[in-house]
Write a structure and sequence with these properties.
427 residues; mainly alpha; 5% strand; elongated; membrane; cell membrane; transmembrane helix; transmembrane; ABC-2_transporter_component
């Protein structure tokens, strides 16, 4: 056969084997109930569950108890204004701290606002008065609601007291004296200053990575359990090339997760009115290396899975750790250098950072060039690692198969020799 025809035959054979492996992997996915749960039910339900839990965004009417031994007009006015804010509701005014602590212990309130006995006298004599705020730190959202409300009321009443104690000749001079440097707070990209708007997009990206790791790891463990030699590559003439195996399997996963990603990253945020100002084309281009990096990482890790249950035992607990190391729920600048370096072993870190900048802040691909490059580098590194693992599995399978054939041949020859000796002995 001529060289060009032989090359063409090899290419066509490789393409046929690639699509055979793709169909075989798709069949394996839909035949395995556990993989269907990880690939479809978890991405379908988890994003909705998380978005639904945090859909209120902020805490309203957080229960606060007040300890007011002063019982003056100024302390009562301070309490009335705090109660009038949207985030806080004063449930009781007590005379001693013991009763207030008891209410917090019983979860009838989540914070205590305490006035000193000389609160009104200190303000009228021109001295500074301190109002103490105690908060149940089991939830930071309560602390945020109490602190912001009390701070706003103290600043507003402070301006009024300053205006009364230091009158000016004109309203303009009085306004300048009371508020010499006016400020305005603008919440960029999260106008409600809500919890879901900054946390849920990170969880959505992490769900894609973790479900791929668990699903592909379960597929790898299943193949090892069913394989006669407990290898990752089935004993099949079609599974004889490293690239066709890797490309065939990854093609199956990328096709499935193209549809899963649309639901997770586009439809769920729209259902719950989360911020979405990014260009869909930019998001799609950014998502491509992220999915490839997650798929090849999952295929690499699946090479070490010995059973179906192994991925759930090894990888499920890492979700919270990876969320913290991504620099979203915990500031990236506060992450120690070791853990920051460790976080870039996983596609979730650059994926979450880049996706939030694009989807929530409207960044372009040039503005997220660093995480975009990191994702392509990760995809390349894990692709090479996947090829090495599957190449090793192919060679190992061939050696074990040859060894098995030799063993069978030796046993056959041994039986033939025994029969011939029996015949000679009879003769």
């Amino acid at each position: 056969m001529k060289r060009e025809y032989r090359f063409r035959y090899m290419v066509l054979e490789g393409i046929r084997d690639l699509f055979y492996i793709w169909k075989d992997e798709m069949r394996n996915v839909f035949k395995d109930a556990g993989v269907v749960i990880f690939f479809f039910l978890v991405p379908l339900a988890y994003p909705v569950l998380y978005a639904f839990i945090y859909n209120n965004e902020v805490v309203h009417e957080a229960r606060l108890v007040v300890v007011d031994p002063c019982d003056s007009y100024l302390s009562r006015e301070f309490t009335r204004r705090v109660d009038a804010t949207a985030d806080v509701r004063v449930v009781r005014v007590c005379t001693d701290m013991a009763e207030a602590k008891r209410m917090v212990d019983e979860k009838r309130a989540y914070g205590i606002l305490s006035f000193p006995e000389d609160f009104s006298r200190s303000l009228h004599t021109g001295r500074q008065a301190t109002v103490s705020l105690y908060c149940d730190m089991s939830s930071l959202l309560f602390y945020k609601a109490f602190l912001l409300s009390a701070t706003e009321v103290s600043l507003e009443m402070g301006k009024e007291l300053r205006a009364r104690t230091s009158p000016s000749s004109t309203e303009e001079m009085e306004r300048i004296a009371v508020d010499p440097i006016p400020y305005e707070s603008v919440n960029l990209f999260n106008t409600q200053n809500g919890f879901a708007s900054f946390l849920v997009p990170a969880i959505l990206m992490l769900v894609l990575q973790q479900t791929l790791i668990l699903g592909i790891g379960m597929l790898g463990g299943t193949v090892r359990e069913k394989n006669r030699f407990h290898g990752l590559v089935p004993i099949n003439a079609r599974f004889k090339g490293t690239l066709r195996i890797v490309f065939g399997k990854s093609l199956a996963y990328i096709v499935l997760y193209a549809f899963v990603s649309i639901w997770v990253l586009a439809i769920v945020p729209r259902l719950f009115s989360l911020p979405q100002i990014g260009d869909p084309r930019v998001i799609a281009l950014f998502l491509l290396p992220y999915l490839f990096a997650c798929i090849f990482l999952s295929m690499t890790l699946s090479g070490f899975m010995r059973s179906r249950e192994s991925p759930m035992l090894v990888f499920v607990f890492t979700s919270v750790i990876l969320l913290f190391m991504s620099g979203v729920s915990w500031p990236e600048a506060a992450v120690p250098p070791f853990w920051k370096a460790m976080s870039y072993l996983f596609p979730s870190t650059p994926g979450i950072q880049g996706f939030i900048r694009i989807n929530t802040c409207g960044a372009t691909l040039n503005e997220v060039s660093t995480p975009y490059r990191v994702l392509w580098i990760q995809a390349g590194v894990y692709f090479i690692a996947t090829c090495l693992i599957y190449r090793y599995q192919i060679i190992r399978g061939r050696r074990l198969l040859i060894k098995r054939h030799r063993e069978l041949k030796r046993r056959r020859m041994s039986r033939l020799k025994t029969k011939s000796n029996d015949v000679i002995h009879r003769i």
